[in-house]
Write a structure and sequence with these properties.
With 207 residues, the protein is an alpha+beta fold. The protein has two domains: 71 residues; 93 residues, no CATH class. Strands 3-2-1-4 form a four-stranded antiparallel β-sheet. The longest helix is centred in the C-terminal third of the chain and has 14 residues. The protein is elongated and about 65 Å long.
Length: 207
């Protein structure tokens, strides 16, 4: 789900304590009879796993060993700083015409013929083909900002990678790709390396 993915991608740390079933065999509660809660930093994550850095105190109190499994209760702590930085960047813009052009200058001519049908990957659907044509359109063609929306797995990164690959067929083009997570950036780089035809020249892609 979308909110679950936000928590998974945006969590910078977690609060944890031993689950009820583990407390019976674990250490005594902390001061005041309350269960002790520990904070752990998120080191790395993948779609299936999250690696946490536990404090020495946590490992000792919970009697953790390499061969022992322990059930815990977790509370994810979101890092809101990236969202605050993005909002601040928008608030600091002196000229918003790049993001919000005047309506008379943003008419989208259809169909866009910046690339022929034969140049497009057969796996693209009709809307994705229009998006690729719009991204790869000549700079002389005044177009509004393009926003690709869709649930996970709908082909947003795939469409963007193919469009960037078409732009890079022209040696004069320079493309800057930004992502809000390391995993998203790695996915973009991998798609560019595997999907771009002809393949990118050595040294033309910087991460």
């Amino acid at each position: 789900m979308a909110h679950g993915r936000l928590v998974w991608d945006g969590a910078s740390s977690v609060l944890l304590m031993a689950a009820c079933s583990s407390r019976r065999r674990g250490p005594s509660p902390g001061m005041g009879g309350r269960e002790k809660v520990y904070e752990a930093r998120v080191e790395t994550r993948s779609p299936e796993h999250m690696l946490l850095r536990l404090s020495e105190e946590c490992c000792q109190d919970l009697r953790l060993r390499p061969d022992r499994e322990l059930q815990v209760e977790l509370q994810f702590q979101l890092n809101r700083m990236p969202l605050c930085e993005m909002h601040f960047a928008l608030d600091s813009l002196q000229d918003c015409t790049l993001l919000f052009p005047e309506p008379p200058a943003v008419g989208v001519p259809l169909p866009l013929n910046s690339c022929s049908t034969e140049d497009l990957d057969a796996r693209l659907n009709a809307r994705q083909r229009e998006a690729v044509r719009a991204i790869a359109a000549p700079f002389s063609l005044q177009l509004p900002p393009l926003l690709l929306c869709g649930p996970p797995g709908s082909g947003k990164t795939f469409t963007l990678s193919l469009a960037v690959g078409m732009l890079l067929r022209d040696d004069t083009h320079r493309v800057l790709l930004c992502a809000h997570t390391e995993e998203a950036a790695d996915t973009l780089v991998n798609d560019l390396l595997t999907l771009t035809d002809p393949p990118l020249a050595q040294g033309s892609l910087l991460r």
